[in-house]
């Protein structure tokens, strides 16, 4: 009889780490910092040697400043820039930039298409949730435009195809953001999802992002919503994506329409793996005929040419499924080896809805297993076996000793270079107020010679690198020291294109310090305050200008960074233009700068606080949450649209600002809101007002804000 198991014991709502998800899988993959070598960046053509593909790296200016194709991109649309990652990656974001070349460049790409491949043979065109395949690019030569990929891509190779509506020159610099696709899943085969009619409303439960083929009611050769990292909610008619149809988050099948008692899904992996657990996120809204499957049968195929194993049967007890909430069920697979899995999910009701299937598995390392059907010669000499065993043991012991020696030499060399950091740091200016950890702006001489620091930049040989160095004062308390170390730990986790990056730390000796990236053009407040808003009629004088689309682009990048922080449940507490670098990266330098001392108010017995940016509950109750960061974002957006010409509530004293927080608490319609800036459209001002809602639960999420700014606000003038 086939092996079977009961899930009475292991039926769990999982707390284990999940596979990549778009909000968290946003690491730069190496175009900007050179991790991706030149040999892996190719193109269909190049205008000259100085505009070859290798120059198409975001935020770098080598050669003539970008990749520029030799041929026209109109009307053929055949020119492309290609990046080969060599291994499958989960891509959640792409960034593009034009050719600036220190002000000499004039070419950029307004729109482009993305094509991707998992094997270098079959190429697929990326489309968004609504089937659109044209991606909005740049409006000038210098700004970085980031595009969230919804749905995300699983690919090894990616091509950018610049588009134009007329014959014109285009140039491009790019970066890819994501993480390694450790799952190893290359494709799955499943029946096409069905349409449920609920109270006369069609609920389309198809796999709308599947990138394979569809024939005779089956989808095969691709990946889709069952592995996109998005988990559906309790109510399958509600969706996490904006402006999509009901049921979008789930793939669902009707027992009646399918004509059989199970949904059969086959999973194909690049190489054989050892499978420990399968995790299935399923809906259980049984009041509408939807239940979690009651049984699973899985067969394993160790290789493409090898036979299927006997089925493993796993029962799901129905008494655990009375709760209508959706849930992730863990199914133990017993460390079985396979390259292909075939699982039957048995209906427990009229409908089965699944939003995600993932596997906890390990690569199967090659072994010298004898091929079936061939005779195996036996060695009867036990003495030979003992001798071989002794020799192997001696060799392993020698290798271990050599490894320890090399490891000690490596660390000795590395630690000697740590001491070089202090000698290489030349402080440019001190940005100090009364604080236990003042921030200094410094230059690192010859940063390429310091491998202990992680540099995300391509810095030219001999050119110093501007960094921010935060140093803990020697007389700091034990609590302050612990807080400093906690901040280092948190910053080390934050890797997002719109978040300041930790480059290095010194925690072995006092004083403790951390080194973060900084930029020569400074913070956003200083940048905007020296500019005037570009009017439709053009600049009225010689003053530097900034356009409304540029402001919205900056705001959307800030929202993108805060969206990433909120996905980690990280609360910033001091979001403002003074804490954003010009090339949008969210930082936390403002409190340490004398320049912005007037933005902070010292409440008796407490630290200095940026009360003009703070939600009422922060001021009155000390309650800081992601929702209070949303309030601060609304004020930051107001600053930007006012071109940082005045403080928020500039007509109120600090004490009156605190009194106004009390009016929000009392909610008697006497609270004062920031006024609408002259350039601000009414729809965008309504977004600000929603950020300042008295009820923190009614404030929008950063995901909603980011979607609004990238999809709606740009068209409001």
From TrEMBL:
InterPro entries: DDR1-2_DS-like, FA58C, Galactose-bd-like_sf, Kinase-like_dom_sf, Prot_kinase_dom, RTK, Ser-Thr/Tyr_kinase_cat_dom, Tyr_kinase_cat_dom. Residues 415-709 form the Protein kinase domain. Its EC number is 2.7.10.1. Residues 25-179 form the F5/8 type C domain. One of its GO terms (biological process) is positive regulation of neuron projection development. One of its GO terms (cellular component) is receptor complex. Residues 1-18 have a biased composition (Low complexity). GO terms for molecular function: ATP binding; collagen binding; protein tyrosine kinase collagen receptor activity. Residues 41-50 have a biased composition (Polar residues). The chain crosses the membrane at residues 385-407. PROSITE patterns: FA58C_1, FA58C_2, FA58C_3, PROTEIN_KINASE_DOM, RECEPTOR_TYR_KIN_II. It is a single-pass type I membrane protein. The keyword Transmembrane helix applies. Keywords: ATP-binding, Cell membrane, Disulfide bond, Glycoprotein, Kinase, Membrane, Nucleotide-binding, Receptor, Signal, Transferase, Transmembrane, Transmembrane helix, Tyrosine-protein kinase. Gene3D superfamilies: 2.60.120.1190, Galactose-binding domain-like, Phosphorylase Kinase, domain 1, Transferase(Phosphotransferase) domain 1. It is found in: Cell membrane. Its main location: membrane. Residues 1-61 are annotated as: Disordered. It catalyses: L-tyrosyl-[protein] + ATP = O-phospho-L-tyrosyl-[protein] + ADP + H(+). Belongs to the protein kinase superfamily. Tyr protein kinase family. Insulin receptor subfamily. This is receptor protein-tyrosine kinase. It comes from Takifugu rubripes (Japanese pufferfish). The gene is ddr1.
């Amino acid at each position: 009889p086939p092996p079977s198991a009961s899930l009475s014991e292991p039926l769990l709502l999982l707390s284990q780490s999940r596979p990549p998800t778009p909000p968290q899988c946003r690491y730069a993959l190496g175009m900007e910092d050179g991790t991706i070598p030149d040999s892996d960046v190719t193109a269909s053509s190049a205008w000259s040697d100085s505009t070859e593909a290798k120059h198409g790296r975001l935020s770098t200016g080598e050669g003539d400043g970008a990749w520029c194709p030799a041929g026209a991109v109109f009307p053929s649309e055949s020119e492309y820039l290609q990046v080969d990652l060599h291994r499958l990656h989960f891509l959640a974001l792409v960034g593009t930039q034009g050719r600036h070349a220190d002000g000499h460049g004039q070419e950029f790409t307004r729109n482009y298409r993305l094509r991707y491949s998992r094997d270098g043979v079959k190429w697929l065109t990326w489309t968004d949730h609504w089937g659109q395949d044209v991606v909005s690019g740049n409006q000038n030569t210098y700004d970085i435009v980031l595009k969230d990929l919804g749905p995300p891509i699983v690919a090894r190779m990616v091509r950018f195809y610049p588009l134009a509506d007329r014959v014109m020159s285009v140039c491009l610099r790019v970066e890819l953001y994501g993480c390694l696709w450790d799952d190893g899943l290359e494709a799955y085969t499943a029946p096409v999802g069905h349409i449920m009619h609920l109270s006369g409303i069609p609920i389309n439960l198809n796999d709308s992002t599947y990138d394979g083929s569809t024939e005779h009611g089956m989808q095969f050769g691709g990946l889709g919503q069952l592995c996109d990292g998005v988990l559906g909610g309790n109510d399958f008619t509600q969706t996490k994506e904006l402006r999509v149809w009901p049921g979008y988050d789930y793939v669902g099948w009707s027992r009646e329409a399918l004509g059989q008692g199970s949904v059969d899904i086959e999973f194909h992996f690049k190489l054989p793996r050892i499978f420990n657990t399968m995790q299935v996120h399923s809906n259980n809204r049984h009041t509408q005929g939807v239940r979690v499957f009651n049984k699973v049968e899985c067969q394993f195929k160790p290789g493409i040419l090898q036979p299927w194993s006997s089925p493993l049967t796993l029962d799901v007890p129905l008494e655990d499924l009375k709760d209508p909430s959706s849930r992730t069920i863990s199914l133990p697979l017993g460390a079985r080896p396979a390259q292909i899995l075939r699982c039957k999910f048995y209906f427990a009701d009229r409908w089965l809805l699944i939003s995600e299937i993932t596997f906890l598995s390990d690569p199967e390392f090659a072994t010298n297993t004898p091929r079936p059907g061939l005779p195996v010669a036996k060695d009867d000499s036990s003495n030979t076996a003992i001798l071989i065993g002794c020799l192997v043991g001696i060799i392993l012991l020698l290798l271990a000793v050599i490894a320890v020696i090399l490891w000690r030499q490596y660390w000795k060399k590395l630690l000697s270079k740590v001491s070089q950091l202090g000698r290489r740091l030349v402080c440019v200016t001190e940005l100090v107020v009364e604080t236990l950890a003042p921030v200094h702006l410094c230059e690192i001489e010859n940063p390429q010679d310091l491998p202990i620091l992680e540099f995300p930049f391509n810095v030219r040989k001999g050119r110093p690198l501007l960094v921010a160095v935060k140093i803990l004062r020697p007389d700091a308390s034990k609590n302050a020291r612990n807080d400093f170390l906690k901040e280092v730990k948190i910053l080390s986790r934050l890797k997002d294109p719109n978040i300041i990056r930790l480059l290095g730390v010194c925690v072995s000796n006092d004083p403790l310090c951390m080194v973060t990236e900084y930029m020569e053009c400074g913070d956003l407040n200083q940048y905007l305050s020296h500019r005037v808003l570009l009017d439709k009629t053009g600049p009225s004088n010689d003053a530097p200008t900034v356009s409304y689309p540029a402001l919205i682009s900056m705001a959307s990048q800030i929202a993108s960074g805060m969206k990433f922080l909120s996905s980690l449940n990280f609360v910033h507490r001091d979001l403002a233009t003074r804490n954003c670098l010009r090339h949008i990266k969210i930082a936390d330098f403002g409190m340490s700068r004398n320049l912005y001392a007037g933005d902070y108010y010292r409440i008796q017995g407490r630290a200095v606080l940026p009360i003009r940016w703070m939600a009422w509950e922060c001021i009155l109750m000390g309650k800081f949450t992601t929702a209070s960061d949303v309030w601060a974002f609304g004020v930051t957006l107001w600053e930007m649209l006012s071109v940082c010409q005045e403080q928020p509530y500039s007509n109120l004293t600090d004490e009156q600002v605190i009194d106004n927080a009390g009016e929000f608490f009392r909610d008697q319609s006497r609270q004062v809101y920031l006024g609408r800036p002259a350039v601000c459209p009414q729809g965008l001002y309504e977004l600000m007002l929603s950020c300042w809602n008295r009820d923190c639960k009614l404030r929008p999420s950063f995901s909603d804000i980011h979607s609004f700014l990238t999809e709606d606000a740009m068209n409001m003038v």
